[in-house]
Amino acid sequence: MSRLTIGGVAALAIAVTVTGCAAAGTGSDDDAAPAAPIVTGAAAQAALAELPEPGPTTAVLAIGTVLEQGDGTILCLGAVAESAPPQCEGPELHEWDWERFEHQETGGVRWAQGVALEGLYESVGYAFFQTGEPMSAAAITLPAIEVPAGELDDATVEAVLADLSTLERVDVLGARGQDGIVVLDVIWDDGSMQQAIDAVYGDGVVFVASALRGAPEEPAATASGEVTVVTGPAAQARLAELPRPTPRSAVSGAGTVLERDEGDVLCVGDVGATAPPSCDGLPLIGFDWTVLESEEAQGTRWVTGVVSGTWDGEVFTVDAPPQPIDVWSPPAVDSAVTVSDEQLMEIQADLLTLDRGDFFGHGPMDGHYELQVLYDDGSIQAGFDDIYGTGVVQVLSSLRD
What we know:
Keywords: Signal. The protein is an alpha+beta fold. The protein is 14% helix and 33% strand.
């Protein structure tokens, strides 16, 4: 167990039973009834020991520091000591991949700061299970947590902080005095902890701030059945953080294979309707021209088919005979949403700000947006779902596992 970190006022062992300062008042009317005194000390501490330990039942968004610790990884959600590597505490982080996020390393310890993660938090097991692709916190726009101002004097703040310092719980990150109120930072509160603390001290004494936030909601449907999505600078900043996955095993791709002086290529993206065709493509090694019937013009051969092999980001190495194009089925598009034409054009404007060689054709299609990419292992689709809502943008991968 880790002890609570107290900030702003020294955590003295103050044996205070009742302070003379009231909670945030309702006015200055001389005839108003005085507010009830705030009870602190042993009685309050006994009540605090019974505080609930809520855990989220759905996905949440976490922003913090990811730190390699021993044989595992932790997600630091509270205070972080600025050192190299940093020092902090947090729940064990599962499904983290260091190759998918820029990080630092010192003395064999890796860490990444300012990481935004969507996932599931288990309060009982003190663990966070990552379900989405990591993003830079700079690309996330969240409403600020508005801490209300209070009317507590310094003595009352010190007494309440002394009470809170007796909490030895991993989900309690720290406490501090701020603008006449005490702020208690926790990993997660669904409102039950705030309610319980209000029952101990009264309203307006302690404000509970949750480090985990609700995950982005699905796009809301309008009366016409269309969904509303967020576009513009905020979306564009998050688009710039989309992952660039590469296959880790064999893949297949369908299209035109074109013979060139510098070597064979598998055309991706647009193919010019000329003879021979014109296109940009992936360099091929090991393609067998004797398997499929090809066409030829001006001394150049081409054929349409399915190739299988490995793609290392530079060269596609064919490891099996090509197959006829009719064995390839188009990717399924599963979108139950309908987006207005105006918003689809705004999404298009967002995508046009990107400079990515692995993104090819894209455009509106039947109430959603379709994007052709070179390769997606699911992480690009997950990123678009996080930004615009599930199904608004459909990512179609040219290479498939």
